[in-house]
Amino acid sequence: MYDLTIIGTGPGGYVCAIRAAQLGLKVAVVEKRKTFGGTCLNIGCIPSKALLHASEKFAEAAHDLPAFGVITGKPQLDLVAMMKHKSDTVAGNVNGVAFLLKKNKIDPFIGHGTIIAPGKIEVTAEDGTKQTIETKSIVIATGSEVTPLPGVTIDEKQIVSSTGALELEEVPGKLLVVGAGVIGLELGSVWSRLGADVTVVEFLDRILPGADTEIGKQAQRMLEKQGLKFLLGHKVGKIEKTKTGLKIAVEPTAGGAATDLGADVVLVAIGRRPFTQNLGLEGLGVALERGRVVIDDRFATNIPGLYAIGDVVRGPMLAHKAEDEGIAVAEILAGQHGHVNYNVIPGVVYTIPEIASVGATEEELQAKGVAYKVGKFPFSANGRARAMRATEGFVKFLADATTDRVLGVHVVGPFAGELIAEAAVLMEFSGSAEDLARICHAHPTLSEAMREAALAVDKRAIHI
């Protein structure tokens, strides 16, 4: 009998397992893959960042190094070696998770888990053999899967999801990306840097739906300068395979005549949906809403002893959000008071430059009728950014007009994903723009742009 069994070992599941074991619980995990880490480590966050970084180096060698006085000649692409770097990165991470599970004496069960009754999980191995786990509590951490495009069959060769886009054996001449969200922009950037002609088709009239509008517009301009083309307010209909490639019917969202576009590869990146199939939830009577498991503020479902976290529940589908939920539910089950502050969950897009946000956007504050002040500072006025020749983008602070409490921070620029952590710490402690503005920042650093934007809230930025 286990105290806790977690179905799924992605960032939410394995972190939940480790924290529960640290707190003295007897823990098991169920994983359908042969390796741990879920989508994120195996076919998502980690391999995509490996290719993003590698392709960035290739683009830097091709276009940027001469300005620094480094003459290398035209770089040659060794895609096999680049893919090996990606695979080695994945292996290092998944092996690391396996080590951590073993170190914390967590028992792994490899196979598909189905909840057959409260406190009972049937695990079916690849060879069909079954075994039953008895446990006091169960956490569903099965993550999400690619949302399919209606009428389009993904073969992971010519018509690919993010999984296939990470495994292409050659650079496509023309790549059409369906969806201008995080995944579409990141993977479109990878193949664009390596030489593909990339067009991004988006149903809405803007990229990065949900992001601060000003940030999204700036990011689009930067990506267009890098060669990405955008067809906004359009949708993809039929995709036909021909002898010379793919023929894609694209039509305006608002209605109108369709246009045929050609491509060698189509990447479908219109989002992800919760993975809850064949878990036995319907038989148990687990409440679902739009495919997601319904939970209360302690991550409990309507079935006693059954909990859920991560992509299968409400909130942003982010690995670090799942991790925080995993820690919180483990602490709750151990009698502590775990919690997650959903107002301070950063999000990052790993394009060049990076795009990072935490907290509310201007549009969200306007919709709620919140009076706010804005402080902005461009990287073009930052000494370190100039030295790096990375001056595109800016930092934007949104602070309460009365209390000065920071409500949101948005960064588009170099290392935005690292810079946003400072804003998250500030907001976690209900800090004001004045609080950050009073903190001495090392010079010359990119982080000075954060301080200057905080100063700008009160119209007293120094270097602009």
How many alpha or pi helices? 14
Choose one word for the global shape: globular
Oligomer: single chain
Overall radius of gyration: 23 Å
- Distance, first to last CA: 64 Å
- Percent of residues in beta strands: 25-35%
Number of extended strands: 24
Low-pLDDT runs of 5+ residues are none
**Could you describe the largest sheet, including whether it forms a barrel?**
7 strands, mixed
Structural class: alpha/beta
Explain this structure:
The chain is α/β, with parallel strands linked by helices. The protein contains 14 helices and 24 strands. Strands 1, 2, 3, 4, 5, 6 and 19 form a 7-stranded mixed β-sheet that branches. A hairpin with a 2-residue loop joins strand 12 and strand 13. The longest helix has 25 residues. The mean pLDDT is 97.
Task: Write the topology of this structure.
Layout: E1 2-7, H1 11-22, E2 27-31, H2 38-43, H3 45-64, H4 79-103, E3 107-110, E4 112-117, E5 120-124, E6 130-140, E7 144-146, E8 159-160, H5 162-165, E9 174-178, H6 182-193, E10 197-202, H7 213-225, E11 229-232, E12 234-242, E13 245-252, E14 259-263, E15 265-268, E16 272-274, H8 281-284, E17 288-289, E18 292-293, E19 306-308, H9 319-333, E20 347-349, E21 354-359, H10 362-368, E22 372-378, H11 383-388, E23 394-400, E24 406-413, H12 416-428, H13 433-437, H14 448-457
Parallel strand pairs: 1-2, 1-6, 2-3, 6-19, 8-15, 9-10, 9-15, 10-11
Antiparallel strand pairs: 4-5, 5-6, 7-16, 12-13, 13-14, 17-18, 20-21, 21-24, 22-23, 23-24
Descriptors:
464 residues, alpha/beta, 7-stranded mixed beta sheet, 5-stranded parallel beta sheet, 14 helices
